[in-house]
Amino acid sequence: MTVTVPLGERSYEVIIEDGILSRAGQHLDLNRKVLIVTDSGVPAAYAQAVAAQAKFPVIVTFPQGEESKNVHTWMTLLDALVEHNFTRTDCVVAVGGGVVGDMSGFAAAAYLRGIDFYNIPTTVLAQVDSSVGGKVAVDYKGYKNLVGAFHQPKRVLIDPQVLSTLPPRQISAGLAEAVKMGLLFDPALFSLFESDDYQDHIPEILFRSVSAKAEVVGQDETESGLRRSLNFGHTVGHGVETVSGYSLLHGECVALGMLPMCSPSVRERLLPVLLRLGLPTSYRGDTEAVIEAMGHDKKRAGGSITLVRCDAVGSLRFETVPFETLAQEMREVLA
At residue 79, does pLDDT exceed 90? Predict the structure, then answer.
């Protein structure tokens, strides 16, 4: 299955195919210097499989976790590019989850003002969401994705087989982003999660999620309009993620963040889906601390904040409300 992200001369393909990791050289131009970036949580064999197909491979592995998504790790990638004399004709390949993709893409965007970047996402979260769209960044001064760029990959390879090594919690957290895409854009995708056999439909879930994301990115590459809708659940979710010290996974935080943004009728359908996936439906932490963290959200302007609402499955709307209105909704829905 192939999805095209339509961006004119920057258009690229997302190929979803079992076993494609072992055939990466057939789909990516690896006949050059290739910086392969991964982390300690990804089976080493994945990066090595890409390296075996590259002419001049260089593998950099950094510690797993959001804590590594910082300028210091980013600089180690730049150091590797410099030390191995990478030129504008060489490339970077991410092999890992969202943190690896963000770090790799941002290094590729900055080095020599931009070199080729490929993404091979190995988590559900990265496959359904972060690997598509070219948003690359690092966390800075405690704020998520504060420093970054838009740098589209040349191609994305999605291998569903690599998901077999993930723990169930990681799979469920990643599927939260697919639930989000179904809620906003694809009622048929959302309905897959309303059945007990949703796990039998993972390839279709990946395809539908990527297709929806590609359509949005094609219409709004730099998040000036429709693409802002993909922040659905993230305003609250990022606040929860920060306050939890990342003890909750990103998808778990997004799941919580979607609830206050849904109408009562949508929330009634969403709650059993989250429970089926093993995702949280209430927050037992310090809600006031989350509200304080949300005060730094990039979507806030003065005393107001722009939210993405879902009043019916398959629809969305933007609404700018006083910040205190959102705070009160959180207190009511997440308690």
Answer: yes
